[in-house]
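Quarterly update from the structural biology core.
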Amino acid sequence: MRASLLHKKYLHIILPVFIGSVIAYLDRVNIAYAALTMNADLGFSAQVYGAGAGIFFIGYILFEVPGAIIAERWSPRSWLARILVTWGMISVFMAFIRSPWQFYLVRFLLGAAEASFYPVVYASVIPRWFTPQERPKAIALMLTSLQASAILGAPFAGWLLDISAFGLSGWQMLFMLEALPALVFGAVIIFILPDRPADARWLTPEERRNLTDCFLRETAEKKARRRYSIWQAMADPEVLKLCLIYFLWCTGFWGFNYWMPTALKELSGWSHGAIGWLVALPMALSMAVMLSIAASSARTGEKRWHGALPLFAAAIGMAAGACTTDPRLNFMCVCLTAIGVYGAFGVWWSYPTSFLSGTAAAAAVGLINSCGNTGGYVGPYLNGFVKQATGSFFCASLILSAMLAAGGALMLTLKNRSNRLSGSSG
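Predicted structure, tokenized:
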């Protein structure tokens, strides 16, 4: 019965948010591939591109916490549908930018539209359906969408950049075509993703009752240990430490993701198509490692080392990549960095809900994600600024490597919160 119920939850809960996340990540990072030709067409410098890539996160940060709270108090599925439709509409405008300020404005609006997508999933969707023991694997499965979007999107983007049609350049067609799935799926998700087990017709009455009782029991246990208000959760020292760790991590993560195709092409001289296909390998490797780490954490209950070791690996990969000019060795370092920056996600997002619930969890997860997304601005901008000033990514890569290592070290100082509460989905 337990295996059958878990299969149902993966199919009806994880699959819809997986699809939404694939679309989100495509529309967030397609700029990294568009930049291979867009920057030259529009005359954008490395600093302009870095600022525009990063300003997405300013809009994201401003609306992250309010959106997460609204979704928890109102309806997670309705809020996710709103997010998808609005960011799909804004994504279309990326095809028609002509100046740096238009670039900055549309990227800012895109971030504002997408804000709170992941906090809603982490704090309002998954905890209602999955026990603490199940969450690391469930979150990791959902977050394989990040690598899946790159595996699917990078070759498509590389191919499309060399095609012009209907008076549009390849990078313009890329933005327009990848905006359509968000519009379509936004209209679909509201019908296929229930807000809570009591609304799920695909569950038996007993399964609905067990899942509801499990979630209520877990919430009661957390409140018995300590009842958090929204402001207490956001000011909690452990939450603030999580904010700092995620800032350091995301500075390296987004500095890597937004600049990796450009840096690899400059070093190797490989074609757009070759870059697109090659990116699939590190993403596939990081996907496998992320699932393995999440499964290990779920089995043992340990979180800190499962989160820290991947960040140490990423720091080594990024630093080593900065020190080699051989394209093949550099690509091996790209693979190691990708494994590291993606590897701990499943474990990471199960941590805040191990001691928070309800609107307190939603607000804290929104705050943590906002701080991480501040790093999402700093990382790409730092790379662009240093590249403009020095003509090389070397110094920026060493700084990002140090930040990833510091994030891993801080992760080892977190409290030892196990996956194991008494709740069970039976």
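Residues 421-426 have pLDDT under 50 and may be disordered.
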